[in-house]
Automatic annotation (TrEMBL):
Pfam families: HTH_38
Species of the source: Noviherbaspirillum album
Signal peptide limits: none
Limits of the Transposase IS30-like HTH domain: 7-45
InterPro entries listed in its UniProt record: Homeodomain-like_sf, IS30-like_HTH, Transposase-Integrase
Source lineage: Bacteria, Pseudomonadati, Pseudomonadota, Betaproteobacteria, Burkholderiales
Protein name from the UniProt record: Helix-turn-helix domain-containing protein
Amino acid sequence: MLYTYRTQDERYRIYILKKAGHGCSSIARLMKLHKSTISRELQRNRDEREYRPAQAHRQAAVWRRTANEVYCQ
């Protein structure tokens, strides 16, 4: 399976589109991604109120480092 990480620009684009009132399907269509990708991104990277793209990008970097440490020993 090919897996690609979201870039910081993609995360900010998701944030802007969500703030503009677009739903997951609409954002996915505009960005040419699967709607479940958008849904997971929004669900995984939110605080109590809303999606946080900068926080999401920092956390993704931590997850990538941790995954490499755990699986590449």
